[in-house]
Design brief:
The chain starts with 5 loop residues before the first strand and ends in a 10-residue tail after the last helix. β15 and β16 form a beta hairpin. Strands 1-4-7-10-15-16-12-13 form an 8-stranded mixed beta sheet, with no helix packed on it. The radius of gyration is 16 Å and the shape is globular. Helices cover 8% and strands 36% of the residues. It is mainly β. It has one domain: UDP N-Acetylglucosamine Acyltransferase, domain 1 (3 Solenoid), CATH 2.160.10.10.
């Protein structure tokens, strides 16, 4: 856990997960660990990331620097992460590109019983100054001596 990282109530970080500096794990966020299977990769969250409330990041997913994972997003090693910002969708698995803003989504999938919405995650843009303002409370808490400090330090 890197210096300046904030971990809110009920957030959990599993064994061997790597969390960078100046991140924020919002309330109830779940970061998976690695105890088994042998050879499994740890979850890596690079510097400056925001992981939203009740978001789940497991199975060796790599979240690159300053990415914003929205509330309720579930990222596993097999979750389709679809960048919808261009003229054609671009699919990723197991890695969130730097400064991406990610929200929960669904995609249609046909089964013998019919077509249903299957969970996925959507990259809807890149982190902007407006995004930074929304998560600026983190910086204020880090700078304010009276808040009880020590979390992630």
């Amino acid at each position: 856990m890197g210096a300046g990282t904030l971990v809110d109530t009920w957030a959990t970080v599993g064994s061997l997960a790597q969390i960078g500096r100046d991140c924020h794990l919002a309330g109830g966020a779940g970061i998976g660990g690695v105890l088994e299977p042998p050879g499994a990769r740890p979850v890596i969250v690079e510097d400056g990331c925001f992981i939203g409330s009740r978001a789940v990041v497991v199975e060796g997913v790599h979240v690159e620097r300053e990415a914003v994972i929205g509330a309720g997003v579930v990222l596993t090693g097999s979750t389709r992460l679809i960048d919808v910002t261009g003229p054609e969708p671009v699919e990723h698995r197991g890695r969130v590109p730097a400064r991406s803003v990610v929200i929960p989504g669904t995609r249609p999938k046909r089964f013998p019983a019919g077509e249903f919405g299957v969970p996925c995650a959507l990259i809807i843009g890149q982190r902007q100054q407006s995004t930074d303002r929304k998560v600026s409370l983190n910086a204020a808490l880090r700078d304010f001596d009276g808040w009880g400090g020590g979390v992630g330090a």
